């Protein structure tokens, strides 16, 4: 089997390396910030330049879209060993990403470029409520400003963003859903069921899979993700975030990698998204996917590890990172026989999690 290199030193690459190790395959990680190679699941850091590192691996994947400005992104986008090269040339800039969706005729929130400061007022006039998004570099709601209908745009640093942002129509969605799927170099594809996601302050708090009442939307979601993966000639796992509005799916954004809303697959499916990603790259034929009962994934955000969690149903995945407000430091998966059982399990978690999680439970836990 080919050794696979994953670029990025975070938890997503580590979870890929763990999945690979269980199958006797090898995924090594390169941390571009520290310029070190992390072999397999080890944290023994070997100093190396990225040029040297890239030379050694026949298959290169990524755990994120943006890299330090060292020429690495451009080099990857040009390398035929990088299975995400098409995605890296298109996805990191929201202008290119939205232009691709429009070109493919895939529904997405209507949008305009924010090139000049006046474009913001024009978009408010056209759309009513708007969402301003930096073209690149944003995540977990950073680089995003949501302004409801009639709201004040004063908080948007429009001068600073002019030429570097887009403005979208604010979508009055019924719910947020995502799909995670894989494509191998032969063009075979495989998909998990649609997942429902709850965000607070731009950060994913809770996912539930399979999303209830989503069977009619599943073929539409699969078709959209398949077309995007084909367009980008992509191999590995990719995710698409959607807004559901009037029974239709609008694409919010594309993540060309394993995705937080797919973390439930660790306990909620026979093969996790990390297994699937490694299989797609290692030439293991894509196989059937058996999904277990309803599964919830709770993000552990800005909180120290608490042994009380272990008294509750569910499996904790802790990333071993330093704890900072708003930082994702782990997640917990709960699987149950029924939605009622899952609801009870989640209530128990609400007692031992910091503020923010109750908001989701109190306002949204119809689990629909
Ligand atoms: P991620 O961490 O998922 O990469 P991000 O920082 O790239 O997030 P988005 O996913 O674009 O940002 O937006 C964050 C959240 O803001 C969305 O999940 C959604 O709740 C809300 N949002 C974004 N765009 C819109 C929109 N056009 N209409 C309504 N809500 C929106
Ligand atoms: Mg994003
Ligand atoms: Mg998002």
TrEMBL record:
The keyword ATP-binding applies. Pathway: Purine metabolism; IMP biosynthesis via de novo pathway; 5-amino-1-(5-phospho-D-ribosyl)imidazole-4-carboxylate from 5-amino-1-(5-phospho-D-ribosyl)imidazole (N5-CAIR route): step 1/2. InterPro entries: ATP-grasp, ATP-grasp_carboxylate-amine, ATP_grasp_subdomain_1, PreATP-grasp_dom_sf, PurK, PurK_C, Rudment_hybrid_motif. ATP binds at residues 94, 133, 168-171, 176, 199, 252-253. Pfam families: ATP-grasp (PF02222), PurK_C (PF17769). It comes from the Bacteria. Keywords: ATP-binding, Ligase, Nucleotide-binding, Purine biosynthesis. Residues 98-282 form the ATP-grasp domain. Its EC number is 6.3.4.18. It catalyses: 5-amino-1-(5-phospho-beta-D-ribosyl)imidazole + hydrogencarbonate + ATP = 5-carboxyamino-1-(5-phospho-D-ribosyl)imidazole + ADP + phosphate + 2 H(+). NCBIfam families: PRK06019.1-5 (NF004679). Catalyzes the ATP-dependent conversion of 5-aminoimidazole ribonucleotide (AIR) and HCO(3)(-) to N5-carboxyaminoimidazole ribonucleotide (N5-CAIR). Belongs to the PurK/PurT family. Homodimer. This is N5-carboxyaminoimidazole ribonucleotide synthase. The gene is purK.
């Amino acid at each position: 089997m080919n050794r696979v290199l994953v670029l990025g030193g975070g938890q997503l690459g580590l979870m890929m390396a763990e999945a690979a190790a269980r199958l006797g395959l090898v995924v090594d990680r390169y941390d571009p910030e520290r310029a070190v190679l992390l072999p397999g699941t080890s944290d023994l850091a070997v100093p190396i330049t990225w040029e040297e590192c890239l030379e050694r691996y026949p298959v290169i994947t990524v755990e994120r879209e943006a890299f330090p400005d060292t020429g690495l992104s451009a080099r990857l986008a040009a390398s035929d060993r990088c299975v995400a090269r098409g995605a890296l040339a298109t996805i990191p800039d929201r202008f290119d990403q939205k232009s691709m969706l429009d070109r493919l005729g895939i529904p997405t929130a209507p949008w305009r470029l924010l090139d000049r400061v006046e474009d913001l007022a024009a978009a408010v006039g056209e759309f009513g409520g708007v969402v301003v998004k930096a073209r690149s570099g944003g995540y977990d709601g950073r680089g995003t400003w949501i302004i409801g209908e009639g709201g004040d745009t004063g908080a948007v640093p429009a001068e600073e963003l002019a030429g570097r942002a887009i403005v979208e129509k604010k979508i009055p969605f019924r719910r947020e859903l995502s799909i995670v799927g894989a494509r191998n170099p032969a063009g075979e594809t495989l998909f998990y069921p649609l997942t429902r996601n709850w965000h607070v302050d731009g950060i994913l708090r809770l996912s539930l899979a399979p999303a209830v009442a989503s069977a009619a939307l599943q073929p539409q979601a699969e078709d959209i993700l398949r077309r995007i993966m084909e367009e980008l000639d992509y191999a590995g796992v990719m995710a698409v975030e959607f807004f559901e509005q009037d029974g239709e799916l609008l694409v919010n954004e594309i993540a060309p990698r394993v995705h937080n809303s797919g973390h439930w697959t660790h306990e909620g499916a026979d093969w996790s998204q990390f297994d699937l990603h490694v299989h797609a790259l290692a030439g293991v034929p894509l196989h059937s996917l058996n999904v277990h009962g309803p599964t919830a994934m709770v993000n552990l955000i800005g909180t120290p590890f608490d042994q009380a969690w272990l008294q509750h149903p569910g499996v904790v995945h802790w990333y071993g990172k330093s704890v900072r407000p708003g930082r994702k430091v782990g997640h917990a998966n709960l699987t149950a026989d029924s939605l009622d059982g899952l609801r009870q399990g989640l209530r128990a978690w609400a007692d031992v999690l910091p503020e923010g999680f109750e908001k989701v439970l109190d306002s949204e836990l119809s689990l629909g």
